[in-house]
Amino acid sequence: MANVLMWIGIALTVIGWLALAWQASRRLAVKDELEKFPQKKKTMQLRRNYCWLTIGAGVILLLIAMFI
Predict the structure, then answer these.
(1) pLDDT for the residue 49
(2) What's the pLDDT at 68?
(3) Closest Cα partner for 13 from 55, 50, 65?
(4) pLDDT (0 to 100) of residue 31
(5) pLDDT (tens digit, 9 = 90+) per residue, 16-64?
(6) What is the torsion angle, in degrees rounded to the nearest 10, for the CA atoms of residue 3, residue 8, residue 9 and residue 11?
(7) Measuring CA to CA, which residue among 62, 33, 27 is closest to residue 47?
(8) Which of 9, 20, 24, 29 can pair with 61 through a Cys bridge, CB separation 3.0 to 4.6 Å?
C-alpha cells in the first residue's frame, strides 16, 4: 500500500512540475497579449494554481507513504 502511494505521489509531483514549466513557457510566449486581455491572464493564473495544487497533493501522498 505504501509503495503504491509513494509512486502515485512521485508521479503527481513530476506531472505538476512539468505542467508548471509548460505554463511558464506559454506565459512567456504570450506575454504581450496578457496586458490586453486580463481574462486570459486570470485563466493562466488559475491553471498555474492547479499545477501547484497537483504538486502539493503529490507531496502529501509522499508524506503519507513515508509514515505508513
Answers:
(1) 97
(2) 86
(3) 55
(4) 87
(5) 999 999 999 999 999 888 888 889 999 999 999 999 999 999 999 999 9
(6) 130
(7) 27
(8) 9
User: Distance between CA atoms of 52 and 22, rounded to whole angstroms?
Assistant: 13
DSSP state of 68: -
Residues in the chain: 68
Kindly write down the DSSP assignment for every residue of 7-63, as one continuous string. HHHHHHHHHHHHHHHHHHHHHHHTHHHHHH-HHHHHHHHHHHHHHHHHHHHHHHHHH
Residue where the block lists cell 501522498: 61
Q: What's the rounded Cα separation, in Å, for the pair 27 and 46?
A: 12
- Amino acid making up residue 8: I
Residue with cell 511558464: 24
Single-letter code of the amino acid located at 32: D
